[in-house]
Write a structure and sequence with these properties.
Elements lengths: L1 E13 L6 E14 L2 E7 L9 E8 L2 E8 L2 E6 L4 E8 L2 E17 L2 E12 L2 E14 L5 E2 L1
Length: 147
């Protein structure tokens, strides 16, 4: 199954000694199902600061994997109560980061669904910030359905 969807994203990043940074975005994307795994893909924009990057979010069981490719390359694994290490590659260089998932809720089906992730980022084993993102996925009007 693969179909066109509308994706609503609300993200908030909190860094020490700074006001929270909130981004809200509505964009077109694709939702695909392969067995029990759902994959959501969309193009980032200037608004997110990741223009020229494609994001893919895989939801499978109790785990969500976000992969970015293009101008920025990374793969982040979210699993509630777990810490995963990732490489974050930017045009300015690469760095190792730790991703600690505080809360994860992912409910997807063939019509869409929602994903909510609350996590902290560590750089060189020091807390760099906390991020929360909420994603709502809905079928696009007049979408073509491939089975």
């Amino acid at each position: 199954m693969e179909k066109d969807v509308v994706i609503s994203i609300r993200g908030m990043q909190k860094y020490e000694n700074a006001d929270p940074d909130v981004i809200e975005l509505v964009t077109a994307g694709r939702l695909a199902r392969d067995g029990e795994r759902y994959t959501l893909t969309y193009q980032e924009s200037e608004l997110t600061g990741l223009d020229g990057t494609q994001t893919a979010i895989q939801v499978e069981g109790e785990q969500v994997i976000m992969t970015r490719s293009g101008e920025f390359n990374t793969q982040m694994v979210f699993q509630e109560g777990r810490r995963h290490l990732s490489m974050y590659n930017t045009p300015y260089g690469a760095m190792a980061i730790g991703v600690n998932t505080r809360h994860l809720l992912a409910q997807m089906d063939d019509q869409g669904g929602s994903i909510e992730v609350d996590y902290t980022i560590e750089v060189d084993h020091a807390l760099a910030g906390r991020s929360v993102f909420q994603i709502q996925v809905h079928e696009a009007g007049g979408s073509s359905l491939k089975q």
